[in-house]
Amino acid sequence: MKLNVGVFFGGESVEHEVSIITGHQAIAALDKEKYDVIPIYVAKDRRLFTSPLLIGMRNYRNLDHLITQCTQITLAQEDNQVVIKPVKTTLFGKKVLGTLDVAILAMHGTNGEDGTIQGYLEMLKLPYAGCDVISAAVGQDKVLQKHILHDNGFPLTNWFWVYGHEMDEHPDEILRKAHKLIYPVIVKPACTGSSVGISVAHNDEEYLEAFEEARQHDFKVITEKVVKPLREINASVLGDCFSARVSVLEEVGSDKDLLDFKDKYQSNTKGASEGMASTRRIVPAPLDEATTEYIQKLALDAFRILGASGVCRIDFLMDAETKTVFMNEINTIPGSLAFYLWKESGLSFTELMDELVRIALDRKRRRDRMTFSYDTNLLETYNDGGAKGMKK
């Protein structure tokens, strides 16, 4: 019997369009002999929609019109099943549109990669691929992520963070911190991806402009030292805390201090429809065996320390002259689900999707065996007598 797999994409995020691309890549890769695939589009206003029309990329050229042709839905748990219900029903229309057995998350950034959608699915008890609520939140918040990595001895560039509003209160103090790093520095919001809101600053004027741009996207702003000359090396990790494997490495090709959104998604003739797979890259990365093994071990260790699961991409910065390697960040739902790295590691995109489904179901089985609550007679003995009923 086939599993009903819901692929969630879109969302209220600056990476909305990128998520649509990743979602469609995942839908195409899922084995239709094993799964009935249900596209679930999350609009920018957080409404959920489904329709066969959501599978055709050409239909997204007029997004507003497409939504009017789809059915707005809600998910509910009934009789130990997650059912798909239309928000609006007619007298003779269907009250239930189907059920879901497992979810594949292809949502990047805010409300998709930060633990929000994961918490929603946890409440429904619907198995889902990828990081859980806590590891997703840590993966999205680069301030928390950097503190955890630092405390566990991972190599990081020099950095600091402040709340955006602090620039209005004591700008001179923040500028002094930036001066200690020595320009150029990278300024970025703590909780975005795809290089949105990120800038390189070479002096105070550029720094203030970059800071203002970053604070438009998040309450926390990170400043870190630029690594130059830079080589950007990435690895993907697949699995969970019980078992995980690392892909071959890639080197992202650029002569810039920072890859922007256009570089990542529209950098060659393939165009945006290829998602992260369109980025200029060298796979495997031209590194010696010792360096390759060192970075792969760092990737596996970071994956475990951060409590990640599913498929992630972990990014590294290397000083091209000194060969010093620094951890940059983890992407818990990477663009294109990093399938291009696993393809070069001998795992097809379809096999990658099979693994994600298996990992999601395994986690659900393990959690079903855990104890999260227990029965007590507390309410039977509770005395509703004001202060007398309070715990002493």
Secondary-structure element order, N to C: EHEEHEEEEHHHEHHEEHEEEEHEHEEHHH
Please state the overall shape, judged from the principal axes of the Cα atoms: globular
Give the low-pLDDT segments. 264-272
How many extended strands?
17
Largest pleated sheet = 7 strands, mixed
Average residue-wise pLDDT: 91
Strand percent estimate:
15-25%
For the record, what is the CATH homologous superfamily label of the largest domain?
A: ATP-grasp fold, B domain
Task: Describe what is shown at a glance.
It contains 13 helices and 17 strands. The chain is α+β, with helices and mostly antiparallel strands. The protein is globular, with a radius of gyration of 23 Å.
